[in-house]
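Sharing a chain and its predicted structure for anyone who wants a worked example. Both blocks are below, sequence first, tokens second.
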Amino acid sequence: MFVKEETALKVAQSLLKIKAIKLSLKTPFTWASGWKSPIYCDNRITLSYPSIRTYIRQQFVNLIQDEFGDIDLIAGVATGGIAHGVLVAQDLGLPFAYVRSSAKEHGLSKSIEGVVESGQSVIVIEDLISTGESSLKAVNALKDAGANVKGLMAIFTYGFDVAGDKFKEAACPAYALSNYQYLLQQALIDNFIRETDLEVLNEWRKNPSEWPKN
């Protein structure tokens, strides 16, 4: 997954500062999947900080212009990618749509809200990539609607191998403004963690489903 170092460190610093990302080795977090984790990420908090959300929006826009040029539509992944996707679409003067986590159970039973036309080139905006499953579910929904998905961009990725493999298999380039390794680098600089914590934190990322080892 493509990441720029300067941007990655600045984003990591911001996420740590506002506690959008929290690190806790002594009292691990429990994810919805049941995994135990020393890290918890809620990038929706960035929306409460105008300077940070502006920087994130600018970096998304720069990436899109540098890597893809002209596109037709920005699509957000519900719920975390909606607000950031709207900001990007507004900046670029483009239409916006978003993809639900599941189709509505009433009305038109749509999984996509907004207008997506067959053949449109689309960039998908996500707040976080973990296993890649929910992100690619949105990508596939857009493809099923006839869209030409050029790539997906997220604020942060854990960098799990399983996610990278899934994006390659789906032929969908994935980009992130920051990732786990840059996060640890910045967390060490800013004294959120110590050198002695790095071994445990790196061990978790290698095999998160079986961490911690008893």
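Comments welcome. Residues 103 and 110 are 5 Å apart (CA to CA).
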